[in-house]
Each structure stands twice: as C-alpha cells, then as structure tokens.
C-alpha cells in the first residue's frame, strides 16, 4: 500500500485560506495542526516543490523588507480539485505510537520509581495541553458565526480535549495502581 503524502493536503488546505510562504505555512501548522499532525521543514519544502511541479500551487517571489525575497504560494484549480478529491476518500487506518507505553511495557527493567516519574511528566505535559485545548474551545465558541471553518476547527479541538482528559484519567489510575501494587511489593522485598 502506498502512503499518501498528507503534508501536501495540509498545504493545499491552508492555502485555501490565504496565500502563504513556506515559513508562514509552518507557523500555521505549528499553531493549528501540530497537536494532531506534526510536520517538519524537511517534509514541508519538498511537498511545496512537488505541488508546484505538478501545478497544484503556484509560487511567486515577493520582496521582503527584512531579508531575502520570499516565495508566496497560492493554490490553483488543480490543487483545489486534488484537495477535494482527497477529502472525499475514506480515512485510512490511524496509526498510534506512544513512546511512554513502549517504555512502560519494559518498565520492569527500570522499576516503579522511574515509571512514576515518567507518568508524572506525561501528566504535567498533557495537563498543559488540555488547558490549551480548553482555551481554543472557548475562543472558537465565541466566533462560530464569523466563519464556517470555525465549526470544523472546533471539532478537532473537541477531540483533543477528550483525548487529553483520557490521558489524565489514565495517568491518575496508573499512579494509583503503582502505589497500591508495585511500590508495596518493592517495600516488601526491602523489608525481607
């Protein structure tokens, strides 16, 4: 099975909102999409080049007051068709990769104390993520009427809010489990 270049579709989608440079696209991705789909410059610029070569976008140089000239990209009709064709396809399998779970799977090698620290770090990070999602949610609720896109952004934020709540619930339960089971076992061994 060939893997689709989702970076290209993200670029096309963002360019439907406004013409942008590669740098500005990366800023938009970091702000709006990176919580669920991360893209580095190493993916972004080759995708821009490919999209331009196939005629899905057009890049035009623009003078910059602060530094070198920038290339501003805009979507073409071919690019809009490519994007709408992709949007009409069913979703492919979602791939989930959690390094924390991989390390917990082998946690017996590092022990309960290390595991507790790992989970507490995970918990702190995702508490901040949850607060950010709740902030986005509040902001979007106040601007639904301004732009139909806000309703769809809201759905992604709502998903994020539920995911981060689930992460925190799991972390609380995991820490309780460790304290009740693994630490008590470790204490028993030490007292022998």
Folded structure, characterized:
This protein has 192 residues and is mostly helical. It has two domains: 6-87, Winged helix-like DNA-binding domain superfamily/Winged helix DNA-binding domain (Arc Repressor Mutant, subunit A, Orthogonal Bundle); 99-191. It contains seven helices and two strands; from the N terminus they run H-H-H-E-E-H-H-H-H. It has helices at residues 6-15, 22-33, 41-53, 77-87, 99-105, 111-141, 149-191; strands at residues 57-62, 70-75. Strands 1-2 form a two-stranded antiparallel ribbon. Strand 1 and strand 2 form a beta hairpin. Helix 6 (111-141) packs antiparallel against helix 7 (149-191). The longest helix is centred in the C-terminal third of the chain and has 43 residues, at 149-191. It is elongated and about 65 Å long. The relative contact order is 0.09. The model has no long low-confidence stretch (mean pLDDT 90).
